[in-house]
Amino acid sequence: MMHSIIKNRTVKKLSGWLIAALFWIFLWYLISMKVNKEILIVSPMRVLLRFFELSKETDFWMTAAVSLLRILLGFFIGIAAGVICAVLTAKISFLRTLLSPMLGIIKATPVASFIILAFVWMKNENIPAFTSFLMVLPIVWGNMFEGVNSINPEMKAVAHVFGFGRLKTAQHVHIPHLLPYLRSACVTSMGLAWKAGIAAEVITTPPNSIGSEIRDAKVYLETADLFVWTAVVIILSIILENGFNYLTKKLVNTKLLYKITPTGRLKGDIAEKNPLSLENVEISFKDNQVLKDITFTAPKKGIFYIEGESGAGKSTLLNAIAGLLSYKGKIENQGQISVAFQENRLFSHLTALENLLVVSDTSDSKKARKLLESFGLGDSADKYPHELSGGMAQRVSVARALSVKSDTLLLDEPLSALDGENRSNMLKMLDSASNDCLVVIATHHAYTKDSLRYTIIP
Questions:
Q1: Per CATH, is 277-455 categorized as 3.40.50.300?
Q2: How does residue 419 score in pLDDT terms, banded at 50, 70 and 90?
Q3: Residue 29 pLDDT greater than 90, yes or no
Q4: Could you tell me the end-to-end alpha-carbon distance of the chain, in angstroms, rounded to an integer?
């Protein structure tokens, strides 16, 4: 059904394009008949015939290919330079101050000025690539700079807690976030790079180029050739823009970039550790003291509640225990930690099952799928986070935390989005998990009266 709808939409879209093209060709034909002077405007049929004549010559295709390669060379160098500049200026404030004026100059200077200046600096055949490079650089730089500065620190925290290395963090945090920014920049700059490159060829007339053919056709009043080469420029522009749009869309959605590999952070059985204990812990953000004099010792196993009103600092304390925040005082940890945050913080480019496997110490998909089934999520294992309800996403988050071997399991309001039946099932799962490790639950109130707890008093 869905396939049929998509097919009908595609047919309608193509039909619309065809009708529009035929309308403008017919209008072109009428104007050429009205003017009746081929030196001013050539009929569509004459252009088509001239195209077939030129297409029989090897030089015609060689010229188009050389121009294409020149401009694409500048395009890809511009992408690489833009990405590098964006990363460097986003991370190093001195470089941002130093290089930002250059970006402004490139944006403000007319393309023709750069082309003319380039006559002094380089050979004619290199100027189109250089011009293409200048068109791409500021667009990629600007987009990627925004992307780098907007990487979600919460997802970095997830990568840190679950022991991702730099490569795996880049693979599952940085790349999924930055690819849409890069795609947008590339699609936007592709057409500009092509048109600017051709303009550079027209001005500099390097050998074996579309621009030099356009220039010669204009000088020698070969209007039919001028129309043919202009049509070639337009057709190649459409092919490049749409082709690049399609390829980059596939790249953003490909699974090859997001290969799931075990974290390998745990080896062997969990060793006996000292119990989790805090002594005179204080946490402040600038001049605002959020927590002070936090002192308690939790058991080695079982469920331990951290209670407190909304805003009392429960999440802040859990983040400190997880090693995500700086603090004063002493926190003696019980070894390996796993966390289910208050926000689900699932990787949006991975399915529910893959969200478990990406943090796991093994690639046992059967075990991960069975864990999801125990949470009532068997039918949702292959769904992406945006396809899950809030309660389902929260259950996946807790299942992810349980899927790795840990000494301490930190759960921030794990039951807040669950209804009665799912809440009861979750408590049973956590009670079972507490036989092997310490389960610390931050909540407004404990769910069992006789449970161990620490209450944060503002």
A1: yes
A2: confident
A3: no
A4: 58
